[in-house]
Design goal:
Blueprint lengths: L9 E3 L2 E3 L1 H13 L5 H12 L10 H13 L36 H4 L2 E6 L6 H12 L11 E8 L2 E13 L5 H7 L3 H7 L3 E9 L8 H21 L5 E6 L7 H5 L3 E5 L19 E6 L4 H7 L16
Parallel strand pairs: 6-7
Antiparallel strand pairs: 1-2, 3-4, 4-5, 5-6, 7-9, 8-9
Helix pairs in contact: 1-2, 2-3
């Protein structure tokens, strides 16, 4: 079947694909139609040199790009094998480990020291537990994020077998008006320096954990630990943390208590809406946490992350 050729560039996940590059993608999906989707995505990333700062291929984003182009009728993809079809809404796994536990009460001091454990990639072990807890107890549930991802479970040394909280961090939102105004960067500067911004997409204190000030304490601890963990995984040391809070559900109290800055509200579009075409999203409150001094100025002058080595913005903290 002949597919229409694209006549305009398409921007996806922070990269603009030229008409020529989109033609390469169409040829790839036509000439290698027998390959599985993941292998097509890896080949696409190799051909177009689409990589993370660490040098690893952006295979996950490549697959999402292929599926995005398929919805536009620009490419045809092989059917997803049923055994590997993990896309779309998920039913959270359920186990005794993720079942409601006895109430945890007291003070933060009584829980110290806290351990923020990085959840390794995968679908089993700690990753399965994180997905279960988020899927069962977070109002947004567990979804496959686009871009870089880092997850934590939080435990207390006083009860190391019990999880107190879960956090998820992903690549920054593509465009947030109040954030971009606060930073003061241009379109070109934002494209170049956005990898230095990390988004807190999930934060869950488990419902049976009832300890005052625990949430703000965890946020403060995570702000100290995350830059090292993110740089170790992705080769980029963040300069700014951000999050979006639904004011219909929360007031952002724990973020303010942890010294995050309130910048205002979004305009009611999706966080990854590059074309300014999505509507109907409820406005969210925007909070940011600078990881050092003069962060807006440093983001405006930060070089694009170097491939294959940890990236530091000028005059890092």
């Amino acid at each position: 079947m002949d597919l229409p050729r694209t006549t305009y560039p398409i921007t996806f996940n922070g990269r603009t694909f030229s008409v020529e590059e989109l033609g390469v993608i169409q040829s790839l999906t036509r000439d290698c139609a027998g390959l599985p989707r993941t292998e097509l995505a890896s080949t696409l990333c190799e051909l177009l040199d689409w990589r993370r700062p660490t040098g690893k291929l952006k295979t996950h984003e490549g697959r999402l790009l292929l599926e995005h182009l398929a919805t536009k009728g620009l490419v045809t993809l092989p059917l997803v094998r049923e055994a590997l079809a993990h896309r779309g809404p998920r039913t959270p796994p359920r186990s005794a480990q993720g079942a409601p536990a006895p109430a945890v009460v007291g003070t933060v001091r009584e829980l110290l020291p806290l351990a923020l454990e990085v959840v390794p990639p995968g679908r089993h072990g700690p990753s399965r537990l994180w997905r279960e807890l988020i899927g069962r107890y977070h109002y947004l549930g567990e979804r496959v994020p686009v871009g870089a991802t880092l997850r934590y479970v939080v435990r207390s040394a006083q009860g190391p077998d019990q999880v107190l909280a879960c956090l998820g961090w992903t690549s920054a939102a593509w465009k947030i008006t109040v954030r971009d105004r606060w930073i003061g960067w241009s379109e070109a500067q934002r494209r170049q320096a956005l990898p230095y911004v990390v988004n807190n997409c999930r934060f869950l204190i488990l419902p049976w954990v009832q300890v005052a000030d625990l949430a703000s304490h965890i946020l403060a601890r995570c702000a100290r630990q995350l830059p090292h963990d993110w740089a170790a995984r992705y080769g980029v040391r963040p300069l700014l943390l951000e999050t979006l809070v639904d004011p219909a559900r929360f007031r952002g109290t724990c973020y303010r208590a942890a010294n995050w800055l309130s910048l205002g509200a979004t305009v009611g579009r999706g966080r990854m809406d590059r074309a300014n075409v999505l509507t109907g999203h409820a406005p969210k409150l925007v909070y940011v946490y600078p990881l050092g001094r003069d962060v807006p100025e440093r983001l405006c002058t930060a070089p694009a992350p170097a491939r294959g080595a940890p990236a530091e913005a000028p005059d890092g903290p």
